[in-house]
Design goal:
Layout lengths: L1 H29 L7 H10 L1 H44 L13 H19 L2 H24 L5 H15 L4 E2 L5 E2 L1 H27 L4 E4 L16 E3 L10 H6 L11 E3 L14 H25 L4 H25 L15
Antiparallel strand pairs: 1-2, 3-4, 3-5
Helix pairs in contact: 1-3, 1-5, 1-6, 1-7, 1-9, 2-5, 3-4, 3-5, 3-7, 4-7, 5-6, 6-9, 9-10
Amino acid sequence: MAKIDDLTLKVGRVYAQAERDIIQRIANRLRKDKTLSIEQWELRKLRELQTLRSGIEKQIVTKLDNFDEKELQPIIQELYNQGSKDAIADLRKVYNINEITTDFGKIDEATVANYTQALKDNLQGTHLRMVRQADDVYRQAVSRGVNTVLTGSGTRVEGSQRVLNEFANKGVTGFVDKSGRSWSLKTYAEMATRTTAARARIDGSLNRFQQNGEDLVVVSAHAESCPICDPWEGRILSISGKSEEYPSVSEAEADGLFHQNCSHGLTLWVEGLTTKPEPVDSTDNYQQRQQQRYNERQIRKWKRREAGAMTKDEARKAKNYRKKWQDKQKEFIEETGRYRKYEREQIKTAR
């Protein structure tokens, strides 16, 4: 799963950076022109909205489009090929290499193309919402800044900062998957990538098994399995669904296996010649992973707050909280002995 993890983290960092850049652009524009009257400031900020939107579209969104176009297909292809290689390795445990069909045909090409396009569509479907949400937040920040001054409750910067802080706390939101679950931008981009990449690798194996006349596979087991997948670990499944003895892959999927972000895979099952993995008690590991992910989200949150800070005091506050969560993460890793994934706490610019 290392290659899937690498791809997922790469996409996640790129989209997290886009989100951070949007917040920083809004902050930079709002903090300017402090000497203007509140009426003049409001008028100028609203006139600058189109410039802000255009900059986001031409620079941030265009980078994301280019990244999606250049990076996704080769990696989906590589993962599909890896699934095929895994299947061939399984088949070699049963057959002589000369008896195994390994030809890459139209079905394989179509599968790779379909998964690549599906991932592009999912990721690029976030771009318009990013622009619209930036537009809405900017308008709200201007309005709050004006109202804060007019009501005598603070400065325009303080009013605008409250709106920007609320935005930075959550990031770009409102992305809903097929099950109705709502995601933020980074987590949605990672979920879509991991789910699509994992399924491409699985299908690389399944297509090769079927090409060689094999129909039975067994579900893998790993130490961080979730409660949804636990009952399926080590279970034998039928690819075609024609088996009267075993449930089908489709039935397992309908029951929740291979859900979003699932890390399970399938290997060949031939009675007496291959072995089942032993299910692992993953309760503690799963809870620890959830806590680690939560800590990572808090670190990224305060990095966004740093990017959106319009005053030295706000920047100092965000920096202190970011360090606080980084220290918490360090303590958590030392207590549990888990591996700290610094790349999940970082962001990266699209090129």
